[in-house]
Sequence to fold (391 residues):
Amino acid sequence: MAPPSAGGGGGAGGPGIVDVSLDPQCNGANGHWNDTISACSCNGLYYGEFCQNMHCPDWDPAADTPMDCTGHGMCVKGKCLCAAGWGQKVGALGANVCEDAVCPIDCGKHGMCKGNVCVCQEGWQGPACREPKCAGDCNGHGQCTFLSANGPGECVCDYGFKAPDCKGLALYQMLFKCPNECHGNGLCMNGKCVCQQGYSGIDCSTVICPEGTSGPNCEFRACPRDCSGYGMCFNGECACDEGHQGSDCSIPMQCYEACAAICLPDLTGERCEFCKGQCLTLAHSAVVGKHSPMISRFGTLQVSQRLNRSSKMPLALLAQRSGRTADKVTKDKGKEHAGESLHLSMNATHPSRHFRTNRRALRHRRHKEVSAVQTVTHRHVEVSSVKIGRY
Fold:
């Protein structure tokens, strides 16, 4: 009997009978037509009406319960698709027929499969050993993550906690804190800021401007000596207060006239400081340096009148009052005038010696040679010099 073949209406079989053969060759090499059984006889592992299917390599038709893939998978076109947990051990030979218990997924480079479970290396976790693992899961004070591609998991701790497990406080939390955290312009060392170059202050907030500049951002010109603390700086020029003068406001107002010629060429020189010191010393003295022109004139008139009266008195009367002869009086008057001249010369050369030795006389304004020193407490802006002589 020949294999069935496709045909049209009518023919040897009579009207309405059709001979049908889907694959009279039984899929070529997969099988052949058997006239005895009037069906395809399949070769090897092929099966099906037309030998179109194929069993997997472990198929045994003689077994009590023949099955593909050891019953742990599905055979598709002769290959096993294993169920989870089944497959072929690493290193085993032959086709995979799902007969070995294996891990559900590949354990990768950082794990080993044992008893259907991946045993991961230190620092790795998860079903396939692809997730980071940290000690104590960072104790709730950090995040466990990878810091390198193939490195183990490490904790990235929250602020204030220390590695490796974020359990304890960081060292900087136990040290003394610096003010304003040094504004980011220095290092905090045991509660004190060590400022970097260009900054100063307890919190490194003060900018150290280059020489010749000033201002918060060093955008203005600096004033000489910062106006000595007696004025305000306006773009390089000092506006002094009422009591001081000079380009750096360092000369007191009451000393400007006396010390300007010395100080203006060199405001920081020794001679300038000496001049200002002498001036201020005299200005604050209750005895020396107080001059009243009116009282000076009165003192001059009194001394002059007394000297005139003695000079106009007849020699005979002077001799009678003093008990000396006229010649003796004339000689004594000459010596007196000579002594007065010498005394005036010495006082002019060493006025300080004169004031020390005659302080009591100055208080009473009875000294003949000093006519212009006011000894009462009467304050004037001007500091006068001591005038010595006869008027």
Q: What stands out?
A: The longest strand covers residues 142-146. The chain has a mean pLDDT of 74.
